[in-house]
Amino acid sequence: MNEVKIGRIIERLQQVPEITVAVFGDFCLDKYIYSYPERDELSVETDLVARQFHRKKTAAGAGGTITNNLRALGANVICVGAIGKDGEGWELLRELEKIGADTTLLYQAEDLCTPTYMKPMIRRADGSYEEAGRLDFRNFTSLSKATEDQVVENIKIALEKADVCLAIDQFFQRNTGIITDGVRERFMELAKASGKPVLADSRALIHEFDRTMIKCNNIELIKYFNGGEGDPEDLQTVAECGKRLYAKNGNPMFITRGSRGMLVFDENGVTEVPAFRVEGPVDICGAGDASSAGIGTGCALGLNLAEAATLACCISSITILQIGDTGTATVPEVIERLKTRE
């Protein structure tokens, strides 16, 4: 039964400090570097422009964004994956440990670089900043067998400790992230055997997770089934594609629809969960990760699927109002917003 009781969600939120969530998959470093164009100079060696950067800001991204959201709510988090044994890896670990996440199962491999989104921020005349072309550091070869084995061993340990597991498959290119074909298969076996709620979120291969709950957005769903043909804003189109994916997967599914909320698929059919109304400018960066954190928190708290989706919509409606930053929400903020729907 997917009846949503706001009072039950609010009551269960008091137990968030007692839950443990494993966040498994791709962890990235977001690095913002700031420049004044008037300080640029010509390189003596090359006679090319040498841009002068005077400040930087770092944050954990991808699985790190989910971790930030969970820690802001007060949940305990175990990070599981693999990063490089490099400077960016050190910075990423620092950001995760700063917020109190457990990084002991985040393996550092000599042959990996830590995925990093480096974002040059160029100062305008009015003092604001404009983001220039991003510089991405990525791995474009598959994990070594030794690293795959270590990642699988670590997720096995995490599943024993956690109440729920969230898997994040960040990259579009197959076998360039932590959840390779081999890791995915072994992970799904462990997930099924654990008997615990496990939610997978994959940008390109969500249809290949068949022993876990899954989450994707309406655009990704339409792209998989219709090759991008069809209106992702049309409820009937999304619902029909969702039913086809549910028939293949057989496990509960969450399809996010931006300002239109979320669809939940399970053995009872399709439940439409409306978004929370927001006013003013919004920044949707990280909204999907906030939703994953909300669904995972709800499942760990014993909420039904529609209530978990409602919690997810509530959290993302708070984070998107934090302009220029990948936002988070606290339990008091969530409760205040939930009360608008009582």
Overall description:
- The chain is α/β, with parallel strands linked by helices and 342 residues long.
- The protein has one domain (6-341): Ribokinase (UDP-N-acetylmuramoyl-L-alanine:D-glutamate ligase), CATH 3.40.1190.20.
- Helix content is 36%, strand content 26%.
- It is built from ten helices and 16 strands.
- It has helices at residues 6-13, 63-73, 87-98, 145-161, 181-194, 218-226, 235-249, 287-300, 305-319, 331-338; strands spanning 20-25, 27-35, 41-42, 49-50, 53-62, 76-84, 102-109, 116-123, 129-131, 135-137, 164-169, 198-202, 213-217, 253-256, 262-266, 269-273.
- A nine-stranded mixed beta sheet has the order 7-6-1-11-12-13-14-15-16, with helices on both faces.
- Helix 4 (145-161) runs parallel beside helix 5, helix 8 packs antiparallel against helix 9 and helix 9 (305-319) crosses helix 10.
- The longest helix is centred in the middle third of the chain and has 17 residues, at 145-161.
- The radius of gyration is 20 Å and the shape is globular.
- The two termini are 19 Å apart.
Biggest β-sheet strands, sense, barrel: 9 strands, mixed
Share in β-strands: 25-35%
CATH homologous superfamily designation: Ribokinase
Numbering strands along the chain, what is their spatial order in the largest sheet? 7-6-1-11-12-13-14-15-16
The count of β-strands is 16
Number of helices: 10
In N-to-C order, the SSE pattern is: HEEEEEHEHEEEEHEHEEHHEEEHHH
Known CATH architecture? 3-Layer(aba) Sandwich
